[in-house]
Amino acid sequence: MESVGMDWTAIQTVVWTLIKIMLLVVPLMLGVAYLTYAERKIIGWMQVRIGPNRVGFQGLLQPIADAVKLLMKEIIIPAGANRGLFILGPILAIAPALAAWAVIPFTDTLVLANINAGLLYVMAITSMGVYGVIIAGWASNSKYAFLGAMRSAAQIVSYEIAMGFALVGVLMAAQSLNLVDIVQGQAGGAHQWYIWPLFPLFMVYLIAGVAETNRAPFDVAEGESEIVAGFHVEYSGMAFAVFFLAEYANMILVSALTTLMFLGGWLSPLPFLPDGIVWWLLKTGFVLFLFLWFRATFPRYRYDQIMRLGWKVFIPITIVWIVVVGAMMQTPYGRFFH
Amino acid sequence: MTYMTAIFYFFAAILVFAGLRVITARNPVHAALYLVLAFFTAAGLWMLLEAEFLAITLVLVYVGAVMVLFLFVVMMLDINLDKLREGFWDYLPLAGFVSVLLVIEMALILGSRHFGLEVMGTPAPHPADYSNTKELGRLLYTDYVYAFELAAVILLVAIVAAIALTLRRRKDSKYIDPAEQVKVKRNDRLRIVKMPTTPKPGAGEEGA
User: Which of A7, A13, A151, A177 to mutate to test the interface with B (most CBs of B within 10 A)?
Assistant: First the structure.
């Protein structure tokens, strides 16, 4: 009888976890939907246009209309495509983008899984996102898609190294891989945030984040003016929408990680104001705004310039700054870093 | 059968299946993807052994980087499997001999004498605040520091050698120096020429 009791608690845990996952994923998907709306509006304003304004008040129902349209459309599978992998591509793109959210804390108690190796877990899971792109590009059996996939693979592998080194600096400063501990290491007001002592790493992480998510000005994987739409040129309907969801979920993820590691997460910038999720949302929203701002401002990088920036600029900067942080921590000035 | 055992057999079955498909899949891209699945499942098994750091690093390094580059190459190759399979029966005796040797060697090391249940018991479950990463780091930089540093130096030599072997400077390729591009001033590129504006005889009247 005891084993039955054990099973019952296990089932309860599983059901409760599933409910929590839904509570995380549904707002995330809503966030993704309205991020596309925000993007179109903000870029519209930056280019002195109005942006979507037809569906609902001020165009607020536009993302819903887009989703419904994409759901109704047929998913066309090209005749020469590798059927199984063609379907697997979008799934492998969205799964890591959602799985990484398991360890992202919103406040010190509001977190799905507060695990010790949180930072490592995020890095490992996000490093798998590239498979969706590569498999989609290869399985489409199309030159443009394949070119996009190759570009994306090289780019993501290159920038992952710089990104990883930037995170090494953060974990040296926080002396922990646990995301909650990393944020709590920045307590005490805006001057305690890791953005100040780790400013070069912050810049590298932010720019590498833009490159990792294949966003402009590093969007050579899509490059609509050169290779049509890159890896997802053969996708239509919901299969295409899933790539879209993955890209925007990854954008929010990188913004959330930047917030947690460099901008103090849910901590308030002024010590006398209460901490709370509202700060988390504001800071993440600000970093997301930067993503959109970049897209409206910069022209696309040339491919060799992207590679040069990743390997010859960012990786040396991060290595030098890791040595600086390590040396400083041995001196009395080490308190600036933790 | 406890929950953990069930999970172990589930992962083990996937791992064996994926491993078999790596060598039997006809399409090399499929084989590489099955290898990815095998690595990922192996990481899951390591996680069951309470080796979070190693499990996550396996995913990060092998699944996230090595296999991506592997796929990158495999996708670009045009591999004709029938041609590759031509010499199968000729090589079988040699391959069989090597495989038998491998199995014997592994049995000697991984046999129950060293890795049996009485020697290597189930790892004790650690409290939630136990950091696997910290313990591993401490061991690497204290007890095994010389071996660790040696391995690092050997890897560095390998990196330098790999780059030196493939580095070639092409005379005909036009390099761009971004620093010079940024530094360039108007006077380096542009010359304003003052020209007299007297019209040619017979022309210039029509435009007016």
Answer: A177
**Exposed e or buried b per residue across A237-256, where buried means at least 16 C-beta atoms within 10 angstroms of its C-beta:** ebbbbbbbbbbbbbbbbbbb
ipTM comes to 0.81
- Which pair of structure tokens corresponds to residue A261? 């590691």
Question: Please, which pLDDT band fits residue B208 given cuts at 50, 70 and 90?
Answer: very low
- Residue range B168-182: mean pLDDT, rounded: 79
User: Which one of A138, A154, A157 has the shortest CB-CB distance to B29?
Assistant: A138
Residue A312: is it exposed, middle or buried by C-beta count within 10 angstroms (0-12/13-18/19+)?
exposed
Check CB contact of A159 with chain B, cutoff 8 Å. no
- Alpha-carbon distance A291 to A35, whole Å? 11
Identify residue A259 by its one-letter amino acid code.
Answer: T
CB B75 within 8 A of CB A146: yes
Q: What's the DSSP call for residue A59?
A: G
Average pLDDT over residues A26-37: 89
Residues A205, A209, A212, A217: what is their CA dihedral angle, to the nearest 10 degrees? -110
Question: A interface mutation test: which of B27, B50, B57, B60 has the most A CBs within 10 A?
Answer: B60
- B56·A131 Cβ contact <8 A: no
